[in-house]
Write a structure and sequence with these properties.
Elements: H1 9-24, H2 30-35, E1 41-48, E2 52-53, H3 57-67, E3 72-75, E4 82-83, E5 88-95, H4 96-126, E6 133-135, H5 145-154, E7 168-170, H6 172-178, H7 181-191, E8 198-202, H8 205-214, E9 218-222, H9 226-236, E10 241-245, H10 253-257, E11 263-265, H11 268-271, E12 278-285
Parallel strand pairs: 6-11, 7-8, 8-9, 9-10, 10-11
Antiparallel strand pairs: 1-5, 1-12, 2-4, 3-5
Helix pairs in contact: 1-3, 1-4, 3-4, 4-5, 6-7, 7-8, 8-9
Length: 287
């Protein structure tokens, strides 16, 4: 799929190595050691058992090849592809023990990431033509944020900030401590460099008007009714970018997008995504 970002090879290596170390423990795969000769070779296929959007092929490849550099992985699909039931995603050839020892790590990444991509795609399809963009949040599994956000991109969504250090998002608790919406925005402008965007969260139209006057880059409209969202869009008249958040699911996202907001952020696409069913099957004993 064209237009996708690339995951850092260092990030892939670190994540995959940690997962393999967790799974193999101190003694390695004792089941494969006990039942399969050390020189036995095999081939296998990774295939989808559900319709969905695939994500995680580079991590699956790394799982096999980090454990055994001699394993050959031939991808038959690319991240971002819509795959049907039975679609072969990759062909694997090499040492049988190594293939089976890396299988679960490869599948865990593929199934989790493809599930996120698939759910994200469903949200994106529901707002096609509205001009709004679906975004993820910082609600991710610890240690997997960049990987999950990559999966969101595979599904056609967009990424919100990656952490506390790459953008300012002034939330209700910041406002309470800072002494108000305008005071918080003013302080942020004084502190940040010109390349750092400033977003502020508001939950009433009164707060929204105060924020608009203070001139942030983005205003997040949190848990507002559809009527209030439409009114905020009218008042804003294109002055700043508007993001809607809160109570966003597949039953509400279309109506929210219809109010005219620019972005819709939801944790559902990362925190509530079911896995996509993907399996590995041995196809040939190469002896």
């Amino acid at each position: 799929m064209n237009g996708l970002p690339s995951l850092s090879p260092l990030l892939i290596e670190r994540s995959v190595r940690a997962a393999l170390e967790e799974d193999l423990g101190r003694a390695g795969d004792i089941t494969s050691q006990a039942t399969i000769a050390s020189d036995r070779r095999a081939s296998a296929v990774l295939s989808s058992r559900q319709l969905g959007i695939v994500s995680g092929i580079p991590l699956a490849r790394a799982a096999f090849q980090t454990l055994d550099a001699d394993i050959r992985v031939t991808a038959e699909a690319e991240d971002g592809d819509l795959v049907e039931v039975g679609r072969v995603l990759a062909q694997i050839e090499g040492n049988a023990r190594s293939i089976l020892s890396a299988e679960r790590v490869a599948l865990n990444f593929l199934m989790h990431m493809s599930g996120i991509a698939t759910l994200t795609s469903s949200f994106v399809q529901q707002i096609t033509g509205t001009g709004a963009t679906i975004c993820c949040t910082r609600k991710t599994i610890p240690g997997l944020r960049a990987i999950e956000k990559y999966a969101v991109r595979c599904g056609g969504g967009s990424n919100h900030r990656f952490g506390l250090d790459d953008a300012v998002l002034i939330k209700d608790n910041h406002i309470a401590v800072a002494g108000g919406v305008a005071a918080a925005i003013s302080a942020a402008k004084s502190f940040c460099g010109h390349l750092v965007k400033i977003e502020v969260e508001v939950d009433t139209l009164t707060q929204f008007k105060e924020a608009l006057d203070a001139g942030p880059d983005v205003i997040l409209l949190d848990n507002m009714s559809l009527e209030d969202l439409r009114e905020a869009v009218r008042i804003n008249n294109g002055a700043v970018e508007l993001e809607a958040s809160g109570n966003v699911d597949q039953s509400t996202v279309s109506a929210i997008a219809g109010t005219g907001v620019d972005y819709i952020s939801t944790s559902k696409i990362t925190m509530a995504a079911p896995t996509l069913d993907i399996g590995l099957d041995i196809t040939l004993d190469m002896k």
